[in-house]
Amino acid sequence: MATEIQKNLAEKNAEYAQKFDQGHLALPPAKKYLVLTCMDARIDPAAAFGISLGDAHVIRNAGASARDAQRSIVISEQLLGTRESELHRDFARVSSRHTGCGMLTFTNDDAHAIVKKNLGPAALAELGALDFLPFPELDKAVKDDVEFLKVSTTIPDDVPITGWVYEVETGKVRQVV
Ligand SMILES: [Zn+2]
């Protein structure tokens, strides 16, 4: 028996697929850039950042952490059609955290305690010393991310990287660095 969410997925997709005409798009992002943003349900990256289908890689995780996204960033740049010639050098990288982020509301200790309480000691042990990468200050987190990416040997030095804050209250972005 399908849940309401599963039914919604199937029904809405049937409507979407009926009108879909973008099956010809190439694998590499046409505009050769990458956006990293939070998984927060209130962010619509395509609409808010002007990303058309096929234009850019959009990486999302809890808090828009660059550290957490490193695997996807390297894959985006080195393995998914951007390896040829100098193409990868044109990649602009945008890191966008946002106001009201849930990652501002807890510490690593809180997260580990909740895992232990709700899921038990086996789950706690499985996570080990996992860093949930919460952050107490928004703008500092954006600056730290950009710095992390700039000093990273996994990203060529001439790749432009900028850091932004998206305001869930207004829909506006503000460039931090
Ligand atoms: Zn968030």
TrEMBL record:
SMART domains reported in the protein's UniProt record: Pro_CA
Binding site for Zn(2+): 38, 40, 98, 101
Reactions mediated catalytically: hydrogencarbonate + H(+) = CO2 + H2O
GO molecular function terms listed in the Swiss-Prot or TrEMBL record: carbonate dehydratase activity; zinc ion binding
EC number(s) from the headed UniProt entry: 4.2.1.1
Cofactor binding mode and count: Binds 1 zinc ion per subunit.
The protein's required cofactors: Zn(2+)
Keyword Metal-binding set for record: yes
Keyword annotations from UniProtKB, A to Z: Lyase, Metal-binding, Zinc
Function of the molecule: Reversible hydration of carbon dioxide.
Assigned protein family: Belongs to the beta-class carbonic anhydrase family.
Name recorded for this polypeptide: Carbonic anhydrase
Upper taxonomic lineage: Eukaryota, Fungi, Dikarya, Ascomycota, Pezizomycotina
